[in-house]
Amino acid sequence: MSSHTPSKEWFYQRLSAIFIAISVISFVFAIIIFNKKTDLSVLDKLSWYMVYLLVTPYDEILWIANNPFVLYLAVLTLFTAVYHGLIGIKIIIQDYISQEKKQKILITTIYCLSWIVFSCFVASIAKLHYHNINATYNQINK
């Protein structure tokens, strides 16, 4: 391959970076759109929600589970971010570690740990969504 021809990894990393940027912008708009406090400015809404998500109890954050758009966007964004990061880590390891066996061990270990963390995130999102559906069902049947 010519040194001037970009690799597939280079292309996929740029593509994933574009998707991550678009999804972050979408999150910002979702926060603005789904904010119940309509009398606040856009920046106040954003800063209020950033603090709100950090200090609010679990039961009060379940509004996230009510919106499938936000849930799917969160999963897709994290998947893309993990994929994007893994491409970068793989390239760094290949550039700075000369022994191929060590490269394979490190890359495999990092890939496995990353996908385990991603799987835990998806399981948490699923549990949050299930809990919210169950709570709504229980309220309806009271």
Count the DSSP helices.
Answer: 4
N-to-C order of helices and strands: HHHH
Q: Do you know the CATH topology?
A: 3 helical TM bundles of succinate and fumarate reductases
Helicity level: over 70%
Overall domain count: 1
CATH class equals: Mainly Alpha
Class by SSE composition: mainly alpha
Span of the ends, CA to CA: 67 Å
- Radius of gyration, CA atoms, in whole angstroms: 20 Å
Would you report the number of β strands?
A: 0
| CATH architecture field | Up-down Bundle
Mean pLDDT: 78
For the largest beta-sheet, the strand count, sense and barrel status come to:
none
Low-pLDDT ranges: none
**% residues in beta strands:** under 5%
Form type: elongated
Describe this structure as you would to a colleague:
It is a single chain. With 142 residues, the chain is mostly helical. It has a single domain (8-140), classed as 3 helical TM bundles of succinate and fumarate reductases, CATH 1.20.1300. The chain has four helices and no strands. Helix 1 (8-33) packs antiparallel against helix 3 (68-96) and helix 3 (68-96) runs antiparallel to helix 4 (100-140). The longest helix is centred in the C-terminal third of the chain and has 41 residues, at 100-140. The protein starts with 7 loop residues before the first helix and ends with a helix. The mean pLDDT is 78.
